[in-house]
## 1
Amino acid sequence: MNFAPVLLFFAAAFALVLISLILNRLLAPRNPYPLKLTTYECGEEPVGSPWIRFNARFYVIALIFVVFDVEVLFLFPWAVNLKTLGMFAWIEMAVFILILSVGLAYVWAKGDLEWIKPKPDNYLPTQESK
Amino acid sequence: MIIELLTQIIFWAFVILTVGSAIVVVFSKRIIYSAFALLFTLFGVAGLYVFLAADFLAASQLLVYVGGILTLIIFGVFLTTKLHGMSIPEQTHQRYLAIIPVAGIIAILFYVFFSVDWFAHASAAEPTTKDLGKLLLTTYLVPFEVASVLLLAALIGAMRLARPREEDQDD
């Protein structure tokens, strides 16, 4: 089959992880005690449950990512035909990407890419005019 | 002969992966486990697409669903309030009413299953991406460019909805 190399790549990636985990289990001395089993937090003592609500920004960034993910998908059939179709295809994709860059410019200008957004309290017109 | 056998083994491995993880998605008591099991389901479906000689569809499945949509779902799960205190009651509502749409979906699936000649293209199994791209860049040029406008509209619409409500004030 044509896709055997792809499968081999997946198998190799999977095997690499599996082998390193098994090797670790075989070679490393295991001597767990409660302090060692605590969650590593860059030297900080972990407080509370790890099941917290994430910043909603993550979700927004993921939303933007999905759109450009689809753009990358369209690059895929374009790239294999670029040599045969030449300049014409290049311009087509340039237009395609240009239209989508408007989206990037929009989210950038609107401040959707900013990590910390001002609190609703600071958003009132009186505060903004200062 | 040996290749035939190997192909069969790989095919059934993908089937078991897909169906097995789909069962975990449905029956897991923790929504986060369901979300991560969905990763294997979507990956398995991508593998099955390859067996149907739909390699571009498989690539899009991996790139968009496994890479993008699943990330979105997992972030969505992270945002649910129910995760607090790790008590996530998984309730089933309207169990009997649900039979109607489920029966409909099963009927459609069975219809597709029996009406499509699954082996028509699978034996050829030549990569389709190149032909697809050629069609997209020549015959279907306008839909291709319109797709970017659609994506742009989707991006702006999604951002509009995801933004805090207070934003309405400064428009």
## 2
Amino acid sequence: MSDEAKWDVVVVGAGAGGAAAAYGLCRRGLSVLLLDAGPHFDPATDYPLTESDWETRGFPEKAGSKGKVTFAPGQKLTGQEPLLASGSRGLGPLVTNGVRFMDRYEHVRGIGGSTLHFTGEAHRLHPAAMKMKSRFGVAADWPVEYAELERYYSEAEQLIGVAGPDSQGARWRSQKFPLPQHPLSYAAQTLGKGAKALGLDWQANSRAALSQPWNGRPPCNYCGACNNGCPRADKGSADVTFIQAALATGRCTIRSDSPAIRIEANRDRVIAVLVGRADGSIERIACPNLVLACGAVETPRLLLASDGLGNESGQVGQNFMDTLFITVGALHPEPQHGRRGLPNDAICWDFNAPDAIPGVIGGCRFYNGAGENELGGLAAFALRAIPGWGRAHAQSVRRQWGHALHIGAIGEKLPNRDSRIDLDPKERDRFGMPLARIASSLAEADIARLRFMAKKSHEVLAASGAERIYETYSSWDWFSATHVFGTCRMGSDPASSVVDPFGRSHRWRNLWIADASVFPSSGGGEAPALTIHALALRTAERIQKQ
Amino acid sequence: MKRRTVMALLAALALGGGAALRRALAALGQQAPEPTMAAIADTLFPGGDGLPGASALKLHERVLAVSDLQDSIGKGIAWLDKYAASRGVDAFVALDEAGRLAAIDAAFASTDDGIRPFVFALRQYLGLAYYADPAIKKAFAYTGPPQPDGFADFQERPS
């Protein structure tokens, strides 16, 4: 037990937000202890993509790399939604009991966090999506303008080496992407023909994957396996970008396998964080400044488990927004072999603005989903795409392998009163800390947005020449969230938000949050990592100025 | 479907439990389950066109080792043997190929308690193992490991 602070700032969580915050603090001369509940991953040895059984391994699980959560009962499904119901011709329907399947919160605990297994899309938020309340009467406004975030976006893109196109419409830029865009894969080109036939703009996605050598990292070789972990380190996960840069300052100390279990506070300041050790003991670490970056599930959990620290507004854990998604797979007459190339290499932003979808507020975007969906390889294809068994099945697998096309869409998820994070009243971890409990519900507007996403996906596939839909998976009946937001909302009003526009607690003067829990709205399907980086860099700058 | 969901099924192919099943079946007076499970595996995934069937890859032995399936394997084999008896033969293994396929078809279509989930689970376990086997994958294009070479031809029509 010690009351003597050894670091200027303690950062809890070494993912997209914590890593960027640590870098931003260290480069401004502050010393940082960066903690994470999970282990180190070594790209060279932990991602065995040269092995023949690569597809059955997925992203590796190591001791402590998966946190436990519980789920509130799933939403009762009403009405028939043939375009949204999850299932495949080979596996049948995913849900048969009429209740939304609360399956999983996709995340990684470890040095690099969920960026270790992310696809690596690098998106700036649509500027209009930051003004949902004042312009459209829903969710809440961001208390920061796109124009103010722009230079932090640029800083993050430069450090990562983001590759992207010359223009992304409303997302104006002060400078070009640091690297040229990636060429489109063959499957993306096929989908692009369909999109263009419908009058849609189908362009290269901006990607945290190197199209040229950058800062000592090699360019991508288009293996398609970003979600399994990148052994080449060309993918811009936080461990090979922000954390390396933070370590290079000589002012960053990293400690893995160190879950924060409670925060101590006094008067108007937090004074220490209690951290679990592998042997079951608890260490007390004094912290002049504390930055929480555990994500929109674990950050509210830690606050609520610390006697509701920072919850003066009652908003900690509220406004939970998860991933509104759909993916549709179809068979094309010609072979595509879509696992070749970067996953999500092409994107359509045409419906991304909050008012772009007719009749419903909140945008979405479409992308080439082949890479993410074909990582299961031949076995997953054989079982999902081809129904049946026996010789007829075997012959169809031989004939159709490689003919799959996938399109995916992600859309705005608006907050509602039935979607939140709270503490499970019974389940606890090994240190006695209550587990986070996830409750998620879709409102009619979310379902309407999903219907549009499904309908447009079918249209693009058909226009691309695909002839038979073989699977649909959507968040209408399946909670499987990767992007989560909103549970410690930032705002100017202490009565309706948890942190101020710079990420600092309204009540506790040295408590900061630097992850997607501060998002007042989710955006129209943008991947959040780059925005998390930008906000964290801005928060770090503020801490130093203070 | 997320690949993690699909691949999690394969992780269920853990060792252990096969001996317990054999003991349980022996106690019931039934024969060892290997021949029947091999026949089921080959009916579901028979190979052909130069590819081996599932039993040649010994996948039925891996299924028999899945401890979670022990109870349903015994009941499932009993159901298939009963179906065979209704067709005038002693057991599922005594049916010809067309008869076995008809039995499996009937199992998938049946509303009898437990048989459809049983054959559905077998399709998952055996299918994932079968099409992930190097002996099968080598007959299909673009099934090799992603690294170290990646896909230099990713922009082009597949070769």
## 3
Amino acid sequence: MLFQILILLFSLFAIVSIFFRRAKDGLGIRATVFWILFWLGVDLVVLVPNSTTVLANKLGIGRGVDLVVYVSILMIFFILFRLNVKIEGINRQITKIVRKNAIDDVKKK
Amino acid sequence: MIIAIIPAFNESDSIESVVHAVKNHVDEVVVVDDGSMDETVKKARAAGATVLLHNLNRGQGAALQTGHDYAQTRAADFVLHFDADGQFDAAEIVPALQALQNSKADVLFGSRFLNKKGDLPFTKRYIIFPISKVINFVFGTPNMSDVHNGFRILNKKALSAIYIGQDRMAHATEIPALVKTHKLGYIEYPVTVRYFEYGQNVKGGFHILKDLILGKFIA
């Protein structure tokens, strides 16, 4: 019971901070909607723990918890991949700056 | 006008002799120093090369593209890619350039295998080389007798068409793929390679594969 209250409080805090980020840092509408739905989903699972089991059974997975773990791992891998692509993109931007410096320096001479 | 581009990272032992050897065969030698911590820059300058400085290490592909950008500001007709470690023979530059001009192709790729010059370690020939061929096929490069050979000559047309986006070693797969994409003509030319260092090992191969995959997702 305590665990449920803690998570509900945390998700409330998370949703409020999403609105703050939207107002202050210009978080996109898609990201805003995604994260709000994500935390509402978490609330649903916390309040009605069996809800994941119903969905899991439809997908042929025995326990709801297993479904949550599978989906989480997939999401983490996807996010890691996106991060890698983003880092490579930033690397290429850095290279462009280094290259421009190199060419500009030699032109000055 | 032909400009030699020599990417160098901590090559102070060999850079001087390589620049001296190459400069007799080209109009200008450009050493792109990729953030070396030794005396590469000083020695390259002393040997008479134009030195472009990367103040951060960005990789061989990045250094080659920097050389390309510079060559375009100098309105070069040809650029030559040449390694800084002295594994190529500078005497092969002029005949290679002639072969390219006679062929009417746009790009010349050096090949270790056309006439079986040079000696290749056993594992390179029978393990790394076949794997590289498969990777190259998957990423759309033309089928050539050699993969990852650093000796290349590009004409003006190829120079302006090809932009090397792969900063590290994957450029060796990227360049032939771009040749195909831009419908440029290419020839292979036998070159001698002396092995001082092993070059790409299996771990390096995985890095190349990773770079190639990530590269597909970057606009």
